[in-house]
Amino acid sequence: MTELVSIIVRTKNEGKWLKDCLTAVSKQTYKNFEIIIVDNDSTDNTLEIARQFKVKIVGIKKYMPGKSLNKGIRNSSGEIITALSGHCIPTNEYWLANLIRNFRDKNVMGVYGRQEPLPSTSDIDKCDLIYTFRLERIIQVKDPFFYNANSMFRRSMWEQTPFNESILSIEDWLWGMAVIKSGFKLIYEPEASVYHYHGIHQNRDNVRRNNIIKLFGETGIINNKVSEKELKEWKLNAEKAGT
Fold first, then answer.
1. Residue 131's Cα: distance from chain center in Å?
2. pTM as predicted
3. Structure-model confidence comparison of residues 122 and 219, the more confident one
4. Residue 140 lies in a domain
5. Burial of 182 from C-beta contacts in 10 A (0-12 / 13-18 / 19+)
6. 3-class SS at 71?
7. What is the number of domains present in the chain?
8. Residue 120 and residue 197: Cα distance in Å, rounded?
């Protein structure tokens, strides 16, 4: 494949990571790409570092993950879009090629890659990443899980279903739901790996976790309502079993 890939990098005070991130991107074997930085009022040296590379910089004042990503895409030209967090670092020069090769299948709308911990990652987050991002490639036709710290998707699907701009998380998971409901596929590609210093639950941040669980219920990702009758039957059966 030779399509132009637009790499959208969302940043907020990413000075510690961004040089390594963009250096790794610049060394990719797949060369037909552009980089759009969407920066949320960074106060460190993030923008100074970004200007050392061939990038387009757009700003956003009020950060929402979906809104930031949508703005970056609207300022891009590629038919294939990659989302990469500013604190994620591709582990090798084949990262981009290993993502895009999955789009030879016209029914694939989105691909997300592996995330590996750094030595400085907390033990909780290391377990989080290791348990979540395994070594086996997965074709998803029912499971809508998708993760935009390291992902790629077709612009045509995004035009049909832009990312939700009103929520603080799981905008990628909701987008994955739309893909699956439309009868298309998602792919987990472990060969397209990045280093990520925190886990997907960010060291078990309670506020973030509670917000995610609330959104799961509101959006229908979790839909396992149990009737009062079933609860009473379970309780009765448990009492009979002596538990």
1. 16
2. 0.86
3. 122
4. yes
5. exposed
6. helix
7. 1
8. 7
